TrEMBL record:
It is found in: Cytoplasm. Substrate binds at L134, V135, S136, G137, G138, D167, G180, N276. This is tRNA N6-adenosine threonylcarbamoyltransferase. Its EC number is 2.3.1.234. GO terms for biological process: tRNA threonylcarbamoyladenosine modification.
Length: 341
């Protein structure tokens, strides 16, 4: 089966073509980072309008890159949620219109299921079952995965997601948007830091997260030292270093607990924050000590992209699932509501 995937959940327009026999045939992505950077974050209305401008040209480019004609496409998958409603509606309406015109089925895909399955696009994909750490700007969740659609939520953030905390901390330090890569860059410019930030909720049992207090600790350090600090760049770097280490150690501790609780040896990390090299190294070190394995997608498929939607949609379309002609999207959508295949 050959499936066209459309991703428009936030500020990136992704289009890809996936073939169940040949794998990923083509992939295109347009990021709106430059559009939103001046505002320090995503402006929903601007994101929606830019998706309208970019989507059809990207679809044409993907079909050209794949040397594929429209009559060779068997289905269309699109992100139906969670995400920004206006942005989601652009992708959903485009997908449903094309599906109707081409006479093929369309299917709305869960955005986080797309992220969770993105490592399946790699040469050495993980085998079920495994524990998944979904860590992005909007979500931080630990999930036990027995198969596609067979998800058990083990823990999640009670306030800010890890990626959101990265962005907010970068903003208070005067760094550019998006904050995750900025924090990572500044953190690597120093070897040590005078600051010791808390590892939230690691001193109690359970697998939930909380990052708002960590963000506040970084803010307090910045406000208390910036007036007396002769070199503010050193201060930024040290706070970024300590903040990143606190997030990474917190995520690592919780992943270790989840693996012990489920008695599983495989860990999948997915979502934008999974591209962080310090996090990858920490989790790899932890898994090696426990005789386990960690899996993640290549960096270009950690952030939002069409390839993960095309893959996830293909698996469900092959199983016979598809949507009716109505256009429905969800700003919030618990993964436990997904049907297994």
């Amino acid at each position: 089966m050959r499936v066209l995937g459309l991703e428009t959940s936030c500020d990136e327009t992704g289009v890809a073509l996936y073939d169940s026999q040949q794998g990923l045939l083509a992939d295109q992505l347009f990021s709106q980072i430059d559009l939103h950077r001046v505002y320090g974050g995503v402006v929903p209305e601007l994101a929606s309008r830019d998706h309208v401008r970019r989507l059809l040209p990207l679809i044409r480019q993907v079909l050209t890159d794949a040397h594929c004609t429209t009559d060779q496409i068997d289905g269309i998958a699109y992100t139906a949620g969670p995400g920004l409603v206006g942005a989601l509606l652009v992708g959903a309406s485009c997908a449903q219109a094309l599906a109707l015109g081409w006479g093929i089925p369309a299917l709305g895909v869960h955005h986080m299921e797309g992220h969770l399955l993105a490592p399946m696009l790699e040469a050495n994909p993980p085998q079920f079952p495994f524990v998944a750490l979904l860590v992005s700007g909007g979500h931080t969740q630990l999930i036990e995965v027995q198969g596609i659609g067979q998800y058990k939520l083990l823990g999640e953030s009670l306030d800010d997601a890890a990626g959101e905390a990265f962005d907010k901390t970068a903003k208070l330090l005067g760094l550019n948007y998006p904050g995750g890569p900025e924090i990572a860059h500044w953190a690597t410019s120093v070897q040590n830091s005078r600051f010791q930030f808390p590892r939230p909720m690691t001193d109690r049992p359970g697998l939930d997260f909380s990052f708002s207090g960590l963000k506040t600790a970084a803010l307090n350090a910045w406000q208390q030292h910036q007036l007396s600090e002769p070199d503010r760049d050193v201060l930024r770097a040290e706070i970024a270093h300590s903040f990143q280490q606190a997030v990474v150690e917190t995520l690592t501790i919780k992943c270790q607990r989840a693996l012990q609780q489920t008695r599983l040896k495989r860990l999948v990390i997915a979502g934008g924050v999974s591209a962080n090299q310090v996090l990858r190294q920490a989790l790899e070190h932890m898994l090696v000590q426990q005789g386990g394995e960690v899996f993640y997608a290549r960096s270009q498929f950690c952030t939002d992209n069409g390839a993960m939607i095309a893959y996830a949609g293909c698996q469900r379309l092959i199983a016979g699932q598809h949507d009716g002609p109505s256009i429905e999207v969800r700003a919030r959508w618990p993964m436990e509501q997904l049907s297994p295949i």
